[in-house]
Amino acid sequence: MSDIVVRPARPEEWSAAGELTVAAYRANGYLDDADGKAYTRSLRDAARRAEHGTLLVAVAADGDLVGTATLVEPGSVLAEMCGDGEAELRMVAVAPHARGRGVGEALTRAALDLAAERGATRMVLCSLDIMTTAHRLYERLGFQRVPARDWYTDGGLLLVAFTKEL
Description:
Layout: E1 4-8, H1 14-27, H2 36-44, H3 46-52, E2 54-60, E3 65-72, E4 86-94, H4 103-117, E5 122-128, H5 132-140, E6 144-145, E7 151-152, E8 158-165
């Protein structure tokens, strides 16, 4: 993980970050559902994520973009579940060729640090119920499942909620 740097995305990286996000979700079959087409557009629109939140990128030592995540705050048009005092982690994606290198963990830790720096006292996130690899990462980093905050998309997909006190 020491060869990975996480930082805010630069405008010239937005397109690549969007394509990486789509590729990562597609590689795991997460876009083959009723919400897939609309969500693909949302995942691809990294410029919108940068406008309404903080678009983070993970960059390898060779300059290769290997991951991305979005941090949003209450009131953002991208916020799905965060409230006062909370920040929300969205759209964490690791390039398929970079998996197993700690990229997801580096992105999540960077988002936690940034949220705390900005005064949030809790990080929240939701994840498809089938994203069990991501769930293990979140739990290893101290997130707790909060079933009372689970919700369903308009297409009927279950999103499970996690929180972590900062």
